C-alpha cells in the first residue's frame, strides 16, 4: 500500500529557518543585530555579521554585543574594518564617561543603569560604543536599561535613518531610564519629608543616606557624560548631517535638564538630613535640660545626706528621737526651695 506523507510547506520553511538560525546564531555574546535603511529594520544573524558585506546606499547596522564571551573578544581582535584604537577600547574595562573622535568614526563610553534583576550590588553599568557612517557597535558587560529599551523599540518597528539618529535614540532611552529612577527617588524623598515633618525619624536617616549616595553617583557620572556628548553636535564627518546633529542636540539638552533635577533632589535630601539632625539635637537638648533640672533639685538633698552620712562621733542627731524625719523634711524643703529658685530664674 503506497502511503503519501503530506507536509505543510510553511511549516517546513519555518523549521528550516529555525534550524538555520540555530546554526548561524553565533556566540552567546551576540545579543542582537539589525540592519536599517530599507524600511523595516531587519534582524541579522552571526553569519551576516561575519560576512562583513558593505551596507547598501542609505543602509547601516546596529550590533549589540556582550563582552563576557571570549568569542566576541576574538571577533573584535580580528575585525580589520574597525579601527585598532576602537577595537581595543570596545574590549577594554574603562568605567568613566569618555569620547574619542577620529577621522574614521567615534568611540566612547556611556554610563547607564543596570536592569532591575542585576542591580542588587550597584546600579551603575557601562556601555562601550563605536560609530561611523555604516554601523553602531555597542558592547556591555551586564544588561543595561537603555540598550534593552532600544532593542525592544526596534523590534516593534522603530526606524532610524542614520547612525547618528540611532545613537540619539539610544541616548533618549538612557535619559528616560535615569528619569524614571529619579522619579522613584523623588517619591522616596517625598515620603521621607512627610515622615520628618511628622517627627518619625527612626528609618529616615539611613534612607536619606542611601538616596544621597545614589544621587551623588548619578551626578558624578551624568555631568561629565553630558559635557563630552556635546562634542557629538560638532561632528564634521560626511555621514553626520545637520538634521541628525540637531536631533542629537535636543536629546543632549534633556541630559542637561536631568543634571539639574539631580542637583535639586540632592540639595533637598541634604536639607532633610540637616532637618533631622536639627530635630535630634533639639531633642537631646531637651533631655539634657530635664537631666540638669533633676540634678539641681537633688543637689541640696544629696549634700545634706552626705553630711549626715559621715561616720563620725560629732554628727548631730545621732541620739535624738525623730531626727531622721527632721532631716528628710529639711531635704524636701531644700528641694522645694531650689525649685522656686529655678522658676524665678526662668530656668524651669
From TrEMBL:
One GO cellular component term noted in the UniProt record for this chain: plasma membrane
GO MF, one example: magnesium ion transmembrane transporter activity
Gene3D superfamilies recorded: CorA soluble domain-like, Magnesium transport protein CorA, transmembrane region
Main location group: membrane
Location(s) in or outside the cell: Cell membrane
UniProt topology in membrane: Multi-pass membrane protein
Pfam families membership: CorA (PF01544)
Stretches that traverse the bilayer: 288-311, 323-342
Keywords of the record: Cell inner membrane, Cell membrane, Coiled coil, Ion transport, Membrane, Transmembrane, Transmembrane helix, Transport, Zinc
Keyword Lipid metabolism included in the entry's annotation: no
Coiled-coil residues: 175-202
Family in the record: Belongs to the CorA metal ion transporter (MIT) (TC 1.A.35) family.
Protein name (record): Magnesium transporter CorA
Source organism per UniProt: Bordetella genomosp. 8
Taxonomy of the source species: Bacteria, Pseudomonadati, Pseudomonadota, Betaproteobacteria, Burkholderiales
Amino acid at each position: 500500500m503506497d502511503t503519501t506523507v503530506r507536509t505543510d510547506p510553511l511549516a517546513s520553511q519555518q523549521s528550516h529557518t529555525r534550524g538555520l538560525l540555530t546554526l548561524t546564531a553565533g556566540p552567546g555574546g551576540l545579543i542582537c543585530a539589525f540592519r536599517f535603511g530599507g524600511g523595516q529594520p531587519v534582524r541579522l544573524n552571526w553569519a551576516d555579521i561575519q560576512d562583513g558585506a558593505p551596507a547598501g546606499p542609505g543602509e547601516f547596522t546596529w550590533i549589540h554585543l556582550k563582552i563576557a564571551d571570549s568569542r566576541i573578544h576574538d571577533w573584535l581582535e580580528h575585525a580589520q574594518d574597525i579601527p585598532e584604537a576602537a577595537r581595543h577600547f570596545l574590549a577594554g574595562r574603562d568605567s568613566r564617561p569618555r569620547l574619542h573622535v577620529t577621522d574614521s568614526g567615534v568611540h566612547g563610553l556611556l554610563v547607564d543603569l543596570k536592569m532591575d534583576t542585576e542591580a542588587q550590588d550597584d546600579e551603575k553599568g557601562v556601555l562601550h560604543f563605536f560609530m561611523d557612517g555604516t554601523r553602531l557597535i555597542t558592547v556591555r558587560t551586564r544588561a543595561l536599561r537603555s540598550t534593552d529599551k532600544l532593542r525592544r523599540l526596534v523590534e516593534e518597528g522603530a526606524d532610524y535613518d542614520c547612525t547618528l539618529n540611532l545613537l540619539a535614540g539610544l541616548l533618549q532611552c538612557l535619559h528616560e531610564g535615569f528619569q524614571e529612577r529619579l522619579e522613584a527617588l523623588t517619591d522616596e524623598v517625598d515620603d521621607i519629608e512627610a515622615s520628618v515633618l511628622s517627627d518619625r525619624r527612626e528609618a529616615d536617616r539611613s534612607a536619606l543616606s542611601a538616596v544621597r549616595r545614589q544621587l551623588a553617583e548619578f551626578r558624578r557620572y551624568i555631568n561629565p557624560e553630558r559635557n563630552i556628548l556635546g562634542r557629538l553636535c560638532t561632528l564634521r564627518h560626511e555621514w553626520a548631517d545637520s538634521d541628525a546633529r540637531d536631533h542629537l542636540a535636543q536629546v543632549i539638552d534633556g541630559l542637561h535638564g536631568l543634571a539639574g533635577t539631580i542637583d535639586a533632589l540632592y540639595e533637598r535630601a541634604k536639607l532633610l538630613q540637616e532637618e533631622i539632625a536639627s530635630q535630634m539635637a533639639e531633642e537631646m537638648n531637651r533631655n539634657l535640660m530635664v537631666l540638669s533640672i533633676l540634678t539641681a533639685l537633688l543637689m541640696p538633698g544629696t549634700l545634706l545626706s552626705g553630711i549626715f552620712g559621715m561616720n563620725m562621733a560629732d554628727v548631730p542627731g545621732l541620739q535624738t528621737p525623730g531626727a531622721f524625719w527632721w532631716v528628710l523634711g529639711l531635704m524636701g524643703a531644700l528641694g522645694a526651695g531650689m525649685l522656686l529658685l529655678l522658676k524665678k530664674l526662668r530656668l524651669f
